[in-house]
Each structure stands twice: as C-alpha cells, then as structure tokens.
Write a structure and sequence with these properties.
mainly alpha, 2 strands, 2% strand, two-stranded antiparallel sheet, 325 residues, ABC transporter involved in vitamin B12 uptake, BtuC, globular, 71% helix
Length: 325
C-alpha cells in the first residue's frame, strides 16, 4: 500500500470515529444552542472508563457502552448546574470539564493506560472475515451510519422536536407546557454520551488512553460541524447530521495533508484555528464559491445561501419568521 493511500485511509478512519463526537457537538451547539465545553472532559472520560474496564477483564463492547453511560452522567451534570443552580451554560461546562480531569485520573489511577495487549472491539471482530487493513474503517463506517440514522430519527420524534424547539425558541416552547430544563439536561446527556462513546472507540483504536486526549476536542468538533455545513448544506435533519460527520472527515483530511506538507505536529492547533476561521467566514464571503467549486458541490448564490441561512438544522424555521443563526 502506497504512503498516500495509507494516509488517506488513516484520515478517513479518524474522521469517522471522531464523527461521532461531531454529532454530539452538533446536538449541543446547533440543536440546543448551548455552548457546552464539557466535551473536553467527557471525551477522555469515555476513553478512561473503557480502557480501565478492558484492562480489568471486561468485555470491550460492554466497556464501550458503559463509557457512554458515564458520558451521559457528565452531560446531565452540566445540565443540572445550568438549569437548577442557574449557572451560565459556558461556566457550567467549564466546571464539569475541570472536575472531570481529576475524575479521569481517579478512574485510570495514572495519566496513561495502554491497551496494546488487550482485547478491544477491533480484535473481537476478527472472526467476521474483514481484511485487517480495512477492519477499523468498516467498523467505524457501520457504527457512524447507525448513529446518523438513530439521531436523525430521534430528532423527528415528539421528544426530538421539543428538543429542537427548546434550542430555537425556549420561551415559546415553555409557554406550550414543555419542561425546557428537562430538555436541556437530557440533550446535554445524550450529546456527551456520544462524545464519551467516541472517546472509548478512539482509545481502543489508538491502543491507549491518556488524561490529556480531550484537549481541543470541543474546537475540533465545532470545526467539523461548521465545515460540514459548508460541504453539506443542512437542508434536512439527515443532511445536517451527515454533514457533521462529513466535516469531521474533511477536517482530518486537511490535518493529514498539513502534516504531509511539512507542518510540525505542534502546529496542528494553529491549523485547526485557521480552518474554523475560514469555515466561519466562508458562507458570507468570497471564500464560499471557491470552496464549493473546489469540492465539486455546485456553485451559485442559492447554494451559498443554503449554507449561510441554515446555521441551525432544518425545521427550526417552521415556528416563526426568525433569523437564521
């Protein structure tokens, strides 16, 4: 296998597994309109729980599921701080993220837990006959596809519609008898459960978990969501959720090409910041036609307007003549 093909495969694998994190970030930042920084703590929490349980002899699938449960608890903690204690959303996430650093160290017992000689979800599917070079790619593609379908279907349920309405117009939906506090708490729990699940898979994929693996994850997730909205205009809920995953893949591809171009690993945060700035500016500037034309996604003002005017997922405009985010 050529180095270029190997690089592209690795970037695609990472883009898919981090795409689950991007879906979680999408739920908070776009659906709930909540600036949740818990992600930087719940991501390594998932890796810490999964790695610790696997080393202790637990089934990797069960360990991964429990990691998502712990992430859900972290998310509802942020929700309770915000809704019950009336702490601002931004500060609630920061407080939970800060506490999770110590909690993750307590769970692992040290700063790093290796998994190189342990059974993981990747080693347990060896008997399915999937070739080793594409085993992780196939697994992550299937898992991400399931999450995209499940999350999209969930957002079309009665509860999902109430969740979307809470982020769109909290005062209006509260006047209709919906408990918006519960919506926020549950929404944050689901979001961070997805983030922790992604962290558990990443830990098993890279062969170790580290207490610092969550640094910058909220920025990476937000970059994926924003890039996804440029690449896949969110005209429907399915497209919006799929766009978050597509944005994650594009983000990892850009990182891979940046490394290939000679950037030092220490420069990647700078590259990430530049990508976010460009993606944010693209819908309202001349960047947009260039991006759309380069990616072969069509041109014209209608396509760009679909990105610029659809900051929130479709369906949020139905209630009133509100401005797009």
């Amino acid at each position: 296998m050529s180095p270029t093909v190997g690089m592209l495969r690795a970037a695609l694998e990472q883009g898919l597994v981090y795409g689950i994190l991007a879906i979680g970030v999408y739920l908070t930042f776009r659906v709930l309109d909540f600036p949740d920084l818990t992600v930087d703590g719940s991501f390594p929490l998932g890796g810490a729980v999964a790695a610790t349980l696997i080393v202790a002899g637990w089934n990797p699938f069960l360990a991964t599921a429990l990691a998502a449960v712990f992430g859900y608890v972290a998310g509802i903690t942020t929700g309770v701080l915000n809704t019950k204690l009336r702490i601002s959303g931004l500060l609630s996430g920061i407080l939970t993220m800060t506490a999770l650093y110590s909690i993750n160290l307590r769970i692992m017992g040290r700063s790093n837990v290796p998994l190189l000689r342990q059974d993981t979800v990747l080693t347990l599917i060896e008997g399915l006959g999937i070739p080793e070079p594409v085993r992780a790619l196939v697994l992550f593609f299937v898992v991400v596809a399931v999450f995209v379908l499940v999350v999209s279907a969930f957002l079309h349920t009665e509860f999902g519609l109430a969740l979307r309405a809470t982020g769109d117009n909290e005062r209006m939906i509260r006047s209709l008898g919906v408990d918006t506090d519960t919506m926020k708490i549950v929404g944050l729990g689901i979001s961070n459960a997805l983030v922790a699940f992604s962290g558990a898979l990443v830990a098993q994929f890279q062969g170790f978990t580290d207490v610092g693996m969550g640094i910058g994850m909220v920025v990476a997730g937000l970059a994926s969501v924003i890039i996804g909205e440029v690449v896949v205009p969110p005209r429907t809920v399915v497209r919006a959720v799929t766009g978050a995953v597509a944005g994650s893949v594009v983000y990892r591809l850009v990182i891979a090409f940046a490394l290939r171009a000679g950037f030092a690993p220490t420069d990647l945060k700078l590259v990430t910041a530049a990508m976010v700035v460009i993606a944010l500016a693209a819908p309202g500037t001349t960047f947009a036609p260039l991006v759309k034309r380069y990616l072969g996604l069509g041109s014209g003002r209608a396509a760009i307007a679909g990105v610029a005017g659809s900051g929130e997922e479709p369906g949020k405009r139905a209630g009133a003549n509100q401005e797009a985010r």
